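Re-run with default settings, no changes from the original entry. Doing this only to confirm the output is reproducible before filing.
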Amino acid sequence: ISTKLKSNGINAEYGGEGDVVEVDGKKFVKFYGMSSSTAMEKHSGGVANYRTSEGKTVLIPYKGTVETTIQDVLGGVRSCCTYVGAVKLKELPKRTTFVRTTRQLNEVYGKQSINKTD
């Protein structure tokens, strides 16, 4: 799973070892933390008696390949430049005002848990 480019837009692309699964006709990528029971079973043969599962395993809607997502992002950047009249990326700050926002809640990990013990 490609998780280097972090955002909800880029977490569920097929670009590596992520398992693409189909549930009710929809594709998902299985995403798990390294402290989850999924990771411990896959890499260590299970959860050791002295340990506990601390991570989650979730299904994130599959969004295609990394290349497709990068093309979508580049298309958005090109559109942005066109809207504000910027010929080069370095012209964007001169032609628009950026507003920093933060997201208070990451719904991906709260709504789509595979099982309640993970």
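The radius of gyration is 19 Å. The CA atoms of residues 50 and 116 lie 20 Å apart.
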